[in-house]
Design brief:
The chain contains 4 helices and 6 strands. The chain is an alpha+beta fold and about 150 residues long. Strands 1, 2, 3, 4, 5 and 6 form a 6-stranded antiparallel β-sheet that branches.
Length: about 150
């Protein structure tokens, strides 16, 4: 009778281990599988996704973030923006930027050029420190804060 109890305990232990393994594996699966298409719709916006030319993430079409080099004149900025038919829609200058000595900030611009083409063109200009698409970042982790 003692061996029957041990066998039953082993069976229940293995069953519990099996169920916990299934729960763990299922919990590790992504809720949002990667999309194979180049565009997706989120919050009423059509988002572009381009894996070619080094753009591996989703970004807002028609929007580019530009950081001009320090001391760039306003006429030089306008010339750069005219090359990609762009207009500044927002200038971002935070307190942290100001505290670190950056009085220029970054510019969010809207353009009629394809984003990849505009970024490639801007990256080669001397008055542009950097240019990148307006990437969309998704947060997939769950906070354990109460």
């Amino acid at each position: 009778m003692n061996t029957g109890l041990v066998t039953k305990q082993k069976f229940l232990s293995l069953l519990l281990l099996f169920l916990l393994t299934i729960i763990l594996v299922n919990g590790c699966q992504s809720d949002d599988p990667l999309q194979s298409s180049n565009t997706s719709e989120r919050d009423g916006l059509t988002l572009s996704k381009s894996v070619s030319q080094g753009f591996g993430n989703e970004f807002v079409p028609g929007e580019v973030i530009i950081k001009f080099t320090s001391g760039t004149l306003s006429t030089q900025r306008e010339a750069v923006l005219n090359r990609i038919s762009a207009k500044v829609t927002e200038k971002i200058l935070t307190r942290t930027m100001l505290a670190s000595g950056d009085n220029e900030g970054i510019n969010l611009v809207s353009t009629t050029f394809p984003v990849q083409e505009a970024v490639q063109l801007l990256r080669g200009l001397p008055n542009v420190e950097y240019a990148e698409p307006n990437y969309i970042y998704n947060h997939f982790a769950t906070s354990n804060d109460p």
